[in-house]
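S.,

Sequence below, as promised.
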Amino acid sequence: MRSPITGTAAGVPFTALPPAGGGAAPLIITWHMLDAPRSDAAFAAALPMHDLPAWRVHLGMPMCGARMVDGSMDAGLELLRKDVLMSALYPFVRQATEEFPAALASIRAQLPVGDGPIGVLGGSLGGVVTLRILTDTEIPVFAGAVVNAAIRLRSVVGLFPGDYPYDDESSRAVDSLDFIAHADSIAGRAPLLVVSGELDHPALRADAARLVDAVGEGTEFLSIEGLAHPLADEPGIEPAPQLPQARTVDAGLTEWFQRHLTDADSR
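The prediction came back faster than expected:
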């Protein structure tokens, strides 16, 4: 097993896991959760997908990991307290999506990944970024996957205490990240695996099932017994031993991407 490679791509921190044999191989990009594991390095440890003949490059989300202010999550937590949607969740997703094309170009310049279609994977809020890549960009994708994803951002806002004071601006923002409503933009874009923990928040689990139904052909649902929302133990910033439920997710993702790498090769 080769050691992770760390670096930055157009200012975005990353942890890259080489394929077993090293050298040139396809590329899979991931975005981590705000829950544990909440950094690119920790997400790489939770879902390494070691058996894949592909580079797995785990990107850091804004305000997380190497981009934490003063080395702690305090600044990010303060944004969540200030305005969970318009100060934190929505701008984090917008920034991660907008910075991705330049980061992808930098990764291609640094690693032997070629210029073919990529795989994309996101957990929780990182799943929103993955779904935005599928709906709002023309970047070629051979397969995508999301794990305990925020498929309707309105459902995520509802997990926080109190009634959120929606106005016209925040309503437009939250509805722009409702991927059940935008299922037509995902259909036919790339095969999509929707992974849902049996013990995830009920609203997120219901949204996951509804997305699979709405997108239809090319989309699969994988339910993970005993998995709640996090994929790692707290604090979730540094790499940690893989939990049993995360190992099951990892196996499902490995099989999914392997299948579609093979399909891409045959095409």
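The chain has a mean pLDDT of 94.

Coffee later?
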